[in-house]
Amino acid sequence: MADKVLIYSRFPKTMMARFAERFDLLDTGGKSAHEVFSAAELGGIRALLTAGGTPLGGEVMDLFPELGAIVCYGTGYDGIDLKAAAERNIAVGHSPGANAASVADIAMTLMLATTRRILVADQYVRSGDWAASKPSPMMRPQAGLPGRRIGVYGMGEIGRKIAARCAAFESEVGYFSRTKHDLPYQYFPTLEALAEWCSVLMIAVRAGAETQHAVNAEILGRLGADGHVVNISRGSVIDEQALVAALTDKTVAGAGLDVYETEPHAPGALTALPNVVLAPHIGGHTLDSHVAMQSCVLANLTAFFEGRPLPHAVKTA
Amino acid sequence: MADKVLIYSRFPKTMMARFAERFDLLDTGGKSAHEVFSAAELGGIRALLTAGGTPLGGEVMDLFPELGAIVCYGTGYDGIDLKAAAERNIAVGHSPGANAASVADIAMTLMLATTRRILVADQYVRSGDWAASKPSPMMRPQAGLPGRRIGVYGMGEIGRKIAARCAAFESEVGYFSRTKHDLPYQYFPTLEALAEWCSVLMIAVRAGAETQHAVNAEILGRLGADGHVVNISRGSVIDEQALVAALTDKTVAGAGLDVYETEPHAPGALTALPNVVLAPHIGGHTLDSHVAMQSCVLANLTAFFEGRPLPHAVKTA
């Protein structure tokens, strides 16, 4: 009999197809497991598959007395209470780096889309206003990328890939992270100093308690009126209310967001703004990235059921 | 008395400000010069400032008997009948390379926007459909950039900058141009071979009679169903009707366009499509690019009125 794996978050069926070949999947569709499945069905559940952003604390872990592994689909694991898992001797795995290029690419997409105002541009052509010679909303030229100072917040795999891409655009690249790396970009010892220096802030830091609302009104103010913010990390890193205020009163020029404080809810005050580009958390959503993430999930689950340590375990400091 | 310069195309006043400091500008606003100005005012016009894409043939040149210089604002000069100008001993100048980075950046913006479907993504969030858990139009993941084969058509300054940017995205880069260059990208001896190899075609070739409709139904067919076309050169290079047909019947997946066959008219069949990203010819439209282009214009006009050869003359083969 195949080993049972409970699908804890809501995932499209197509993304689960490779796992279904190997395991007996109990798919909750994101609902409470005990509403969807009987106690008998849930008996003996030893592994959960989840999205790293979905909250998963000790009280949930306790619903499955034999739980031994929580495997995250993707890089993030911010929803998992790691301390609670450790106390219960539950291994936590993820897919480190598997989606890094894909996420870095969506960061670049959002950065270019907001700095070059592609939504406004498309609407001007699509509406017929350009053909009718109506006044162009693109009239005032914006700063281009060559010579722009782009600040990368967080220098993990995604941050490095963002930095390398930005450098190819002839931009100056600087970064802030907890430690200085051996990289050809200017290091800033604080987020404040980075924001003061740059006019485009790319948020690529791992989410957690210490980065909660790290990008607040004060940091946004330092970017300047031609400043842009791009977030592909987690919504919690930005104070979303402060961002809406800064975008509304033009403290900053624009933003490109793939993540939000309470997904899938992007606040109405944000979706009503013309100077934002919004994506529904699709950073890692490419064919190659899914294949790579699924391979990590399969490797983690297979190892777990064979009694080996997870090959892609979350490393705790 | 300042030298007179006739502004032949329609330009925003702000873009002419630096010239107005040095020259006596006669601004037609894109209308016929003899409708806007009296024969007396137009008497002795020796220099025209124009947009390279605006048609300007021998019959127009003959309206200004003392014309000695046609200066294009920007890189392009495809609207100018160079043979007619040469026969009349009229020098033609442009701004080579001044906007190359800015244009390459809009090519990358359009490429990322079409391959990652950013307009569809933004609309899904903005409409509230994501929050309401309506079926996602982003469900089917697309190929990402790492490992994608990107074909660059034309290897001038803009083509090189596009290629360098694409390489930073971990894509494979190939190109076709009349001559093979000493560059680290795979060379294809024909456009057909390039289109067969790649799935993203970036058009960066100089427009002219020999490139008219070079990208036709056959070339589009070779890109494949996950293929994308990006054009930042001139609309004439693509057979626009064939492109609309290919986008409609999904012969190709998407397109990103900054230029059109008859600007500012983007055909309704194109603007109605969901799988295109459209920009109103803003490739060179950044602050730094305008400053650089204006410097070329000023250098050309100053040299001409001082009796020197144009420093940025159009080089004819």
Shape of chain A: elongated
Largest sheet of chain A: 7 strands, parallel
CATH architecture of the largest domain in chain A: 3-Layer(aba) Sandwich
Span of the ends, CA to CA of chain A: 37 Å
What is the CATH topology classification name of the largest domain in chain A? Rossmann fold
Main sheet strand line-up of chain A? 8-7-6-9-10-11-12
Work out the radius of gyration of chain A.
Answer: 21 Å
Order of helices and strands of chain A: EHEHHEHEHEHHEHEEHEHEHEHEH
Domain count of chain A, please report it: 2
- Report the mean per-residue pLDDT of chain A as an integer: 96
Continuous helix count of chain A: 13
What's this entry about, in short?
The structure is a homodimer of 317-residue chains. With 317 residues, chain A is α/β, with parallel strands linked by helices.
What does this structure look like?
The structure is a homodimer of 317-residue chains. Chain A is an alpha/beta fold and 317 residues long. Helix content of chain A is 34%, strand content 15%. Chain A is built from 13 helices and twelve strands. In chain A, the strands form two sheets. A seven-stranded parallel β-sheet of chain A has the order 8-7-6-9-10-11-12, sandwiched between helices. In chain A, strands 2-1-3-4-5 form a five-stranded parallel β-sheet. In chain A, α1 (13-20) packs across α13, α6 crosses α8 (157-168) and α9 runs parallel beside α10. The longest helix of chain A is centred in the last third of the chain and has 19 residues, at 287-305. The mean pLDDT of chain A is 96. The interface between A and B is large, with 55 and 55 residues.
